[in-house]
């Protein structure tokens, strides 16, 4: 009889431990961090199709997106996109002769240097201003609560040039850690 009670207690302890572990895992995944897979080539060469990354969901709950952060957000097509933050609220933005200008100042994008070196014809990024993309803007300025995002593979990226400005409420989080494939584990910038 005593052995039976001991076995029931042990079973109950294991059950409690597993339930607590699942609850903790669910909280972490839902509120703090979640994995995501890169789908497509729009962020090449920085991210490859099939890379698995960890999304930090709490970073923007306590802070704001920063220029050149890689973010994951809900896109209009009911998909999650991974893109790079280029423009922030209050910024004016223009691309001319493959050069990014923010608030009239040229901005370096060192993460594009390898791609630009491979181009033999034309530019990596075609010329545009914010008003070319969204004629409803009062000026060439990103409004409060929105960001402008682009993929690093500029010729083959569906980004703010096509889907418009991204509402910051749609941002799931930022990401910089590739955890799979194992041979490619790294922090990207």
Quick take:
By secondary structure, this protein is an alpha+beta fold.
What is the topological layout?
Elements: H1 2-32, E1 33-37, E2 52-56, H2 59-62, E3 70-74, E4 80-87, E5 93-96, E6 99-102, E7 105-107, H3 113-118, E8 128-129, H4 130-133, E9 146-150, H5 160-163, E10 166-167, E11 171-180, E12 186-187
Antiparallel strand pairs: 1-2, 2-11, 3-4, 3-11, 4-9, 5-6, 5-8, 6-7, 9-10, 11-12
Keywords: Hydrolase, Membrane, Protease, Transmembrane, Transmembrane helix
Transmembrane segments: 17-38
Subcellular location: Cell membrane; Membrane
Distance between the termini: 63 Å
Helix-and-strand structural type: alpha+beta
Kindly provide the radius of gyration, computed on alpha-carbon positions and rounded to a whole number of angstroms. 22 Å
Give the proportion of residues in helices.
25-40%
- The overall strand count is 12
Taken as a percent bin, the fraction of beta residues is: 25-35%
Indicate the overall shape.
Answer: elongated
Average pLDDT confidence is 81
The biggest beta sheet reads: 8 strands, antiparallel
> Strand-and-helix sequence, N→C?
HEEHEEEEEHEHEHEEE
Q: Tell me which oligomeric state these chains represent.
A: single chain
Low-confidence segments: none
Count of runs of 4 or more consecutive helical residues: 5
Protein name: Signal peptidase I
Subcellular location: Cell membrane; Membrane
Organism: Lysinibacillus boronitolerans JCM 21713 = 10a = NBRC 103108
Keywords: Hydrolase, Membrane, Protease, Transmembrane, Transmembrane helix
């Amino acid at each position: 009889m005593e052995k039976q009670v001991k076995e029931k207690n042990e079973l109950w302890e294991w059950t409690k431990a597993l339930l607590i572990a699942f609850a903790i895992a669910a909280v972490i995944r839902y509120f703090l961090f979640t994995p995501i897979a890169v789908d497509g080539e729009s962020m090449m060469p920085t991210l490859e199709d099939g890379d698995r990354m960890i999304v930090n969901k709490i970073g923007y709950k306590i802070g704001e997106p920063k220029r050149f952060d890689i973010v994951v957000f809900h896109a209009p097509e009911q998909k999650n996109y991974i893109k790079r933050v280029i423009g922030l609220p209050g910024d004016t933005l223009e691309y001319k002769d493959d050069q990014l200008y923010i608030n009239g100042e040229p901005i370096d994008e060192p993460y594009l240097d390898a791609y630009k070196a491979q181009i033999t014809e034309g530019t990596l990024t075609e010329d545009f201003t914010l008003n070319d993309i969204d004629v409803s803007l009062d000026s060439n300025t990103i409004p409060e609560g929105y960001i402008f995002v682009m993929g690093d593979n500029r010729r083959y990226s569906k980004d703010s040039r096509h889907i418009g400005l991204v509402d910051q409420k749609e941002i799931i989080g930022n990401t910089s850690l590739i955890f799979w494939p194992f041979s490619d584990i790294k922090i990207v910038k």
